[in-house]
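Known limitations

Structure tokens in this collection are predictions and should be treated as such. Users comparing against experimental data should check residue numbering before alignment. To illustrate the layout, the record for ATP-dependent 6-phosphofructokinase is reproduced below. The input appears on top and the generated tokens appear beneath it.
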Amino acid sequence: IKKVGVLTSGGDAPGMNAAIRAVVRSCAYHNLECVGIFRGYQGLIEGDFKDLDARSVKNIINRGGTFLKSARSKEFMTAEGRQKAYDHLKKEKIDALIAIGGDGTFKGAIVFNEEHNFPIIGIPGTIDNDINGTDYTIGYDTALNTVIEAIDKIRDTANSHNRLFLVEVMGRDAGDIALNAGIGAGAEEILIPEQNLGQDRLIESLRRSKLSGKTSSIIVVSEGDQIGKNIFGLAKYIEENLEGYEVRVSVLGHIQRGGSPSCYDRVLASRMGVAAIDALLANERDVMIGIVHSKMVSVSFSEAIKGENKLDMELIRVADITSV
Ligand code: F6P
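Generated tokens:
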């Protein structure tokens, strides 16, 4: 291995820049050439490359987003697109790729590998934390902190007006952001796709807490939750079936993806970037770097995309007890 390409793909996540920086500097440390590929797999197809050295990645560890930019490439889903990507890699004499992204990125890597037998190491970067084989993904911790900061502010209004707020958070089909931020922000109820609470049990529970003296409530709703999917309909249903509360909906949206990465995400990204180059040099192929019990591990791409629910169900109990 002499020359390594690095790209970010799929939804951006805070800490991706720190991961790129670690990959680039790790290459410099090991005397490998490094090439940045812009706009993920789409830039690979178009040959949108730029040589990167240790100084090219100065002053980015603290920045959100990804300076290499990102995309969800439709063309890479076609065999022709992947062939173009392979041709560019060969032309540029790139021997291996580091792909930073989520499950779509790793699915793309699997197919590309099958067709072209090209070495790729993955780094999990997504706020959703929905990747198997790693306790944490880059960007998740920052997103959690963004969410609790936003809910703390919403709480001021909820409390001043005796209101019930439904706060929708991201996470795609995973409830990690909702459950953890919900506990951290002291939510009354947390609706996640991994557990179907049901509208009537929700109303029952809200009624009980009102009787116990609560005057306002925050309900955190994961975007993937079944009853939360129609969050405005849910708000109406609650208003019609529970007396005494005004209900408001707040959809946090893309503010959850932006902002300066937390220290945890910067350190995680730095460790994963270094581990990715180490794995490449140790001849590992087709793997994603993960963190399990605070240690770096390698997980096969097929394991990483399994989509298994890795939510710690003990947290549901914690949420239930701490919201009585
Ligand atoms: O995967 C990150 C994520 O922000 C999800 O939480 C969300 O469902 C999705 O991306 C939104 O994607 P887009 O920015 O393409 O609308």
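For this record: Residues 170 and 223 are 5 Å apart (CA to CA). The mean pLDDT is 96. Please report discrepancies through the issue tracker.
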